[in-house]
Amino acid sequence: xxxxxxMARFRRRTCIILLLFILFICSIMMALKTLRPDRAGFGxxxxxxxxxxxQQRTVLLDNKQNSLNRIQGDTVTRVSNLxxxxxxxxxxxxxxxxxxxxxxxxxxxxFHIFYYSWFGNPQFDGKYIHWNHPLLPxxxxxxANNYPKGRHNPPEDIGxxxxxxxxxxxxxxxxxxxxxxxxxxxxxTGVIVLSWYPPGMADENGEPTDDLVxxxxxxxxxxxxxxxxxxxxxxxxxxxxMYHNVKYxxxxxxxxxxxxxxxxxxxxxxPMFYVYDSYVTIPEIWANLLTVSGSQTIRNTPYDALxxxxxxxxxxxxxxxxxxxxxxxxxxxxxxxxxxxxHHNWASLKAFCDSNNLxxxxxxxxxxxxxxxRPWNNHNTRNRVNGKYxxxxxxxxxxxxxxxxxxxxxxxxxxxxxxxKAVPKRTGQVVYLDYxxxxxxxxxxxxQKWSEKYRKEQEQWLx
Length: 463
What we know:
Elements: H1 2-35, H2 52-71, H3 79-92, H4 100-103, E1 111-115, H5 122-125, H6 141-144, H7 174-186, E2 191-196, H8 213-222, E3 226-231, H9 239-253, E4 261-263, E5 269-275, H10 283-290, E6 306-310, H11 316-323, E7 327-329, H12 346-355, E8 359-361, E9 363-364, H13 388-399, E10 405-407, H14 442-461
């Protein structure tokens, strides 16, 4: 009997201790919950609401509290259950591991985002690349003489008006590539439009980057993202070299699970290629490649694809149609800079595309400033207005009900169109712009918000 009483008291004390421990854990969690803002730091003008990850955590805590209330009625017979919940509560306070699909927003494959892999630093590349961008002179010598010349001197002085959270990084750094993929996935984008030059070629300030494509594809696949190609205006780009390079891309990368294929209205799955500065090549040359009767035609071959031309001026829409392109995009994040980038022209462009069986892909951006490399170009600056400019662009894009929206850009730092995380920074000579009063990830959050809004509205368009 004595042993029975001792064991009974021991079990009661154990139950009480476990119960107090559970209550202590839950009270801490509830206290932390009360510290979270009801809005994600944006205030009423942007109406962002709680972020998805905060919503998930709130639901998790509420479920734990309900479970605890049910358990309290029978502490003696459910000691093992209490112990299990205590362990789960402690685990819940730790960050989850390798649960990407649960942690991140689902990818939206109708949100395409322009991405640049041309940055380098001494650790990975032996020197700085692109961060040390030269100051470009104005074409009028009289104007050029009024502005500074020379190059930027990283890491404190970079060719950008904002400063990246990751610093003057190398695009070859695996940790940087992974961070970028995670950021793009958190923004609920789905397709990376990778700036691409043929093997051995690069822009005038960079180095060849084609050998980086397999790594980018691998990391994109890890985050369930797709990759398509933004073919830059390389030297001697014409119908013949384009056929060769499209064949090269599809042969080398087309079998990768992250290689993007777009489902057409006829049910075919075709690669897609954005062609930057397509207007510098005359329509007759493009027609050789892109029309069925062309001398270098790619149509109805294993390398057929969707080709999207850049529209800058209004007259380009007729050239694009004659050339045999499948659609057009506007790229520039400067409302009013060109006919194509002016939001009020998107409705007429969409109508033209609809009547000619073309895709219209408007490009939205968070703002524009390139005075770090073009100090004379102040008149094209577009202030971000704490995110309002970006939201206005998205709103204008949704009004024309496009099949795809493109985003300029994830990391074109030279032109200040990036949505990548940026941080405040001040050096002896430079004060960089930043995203304050918001957090470094504010534009990722806004992209995720509009991705969800686009998804919901698109469901109604299709009804």
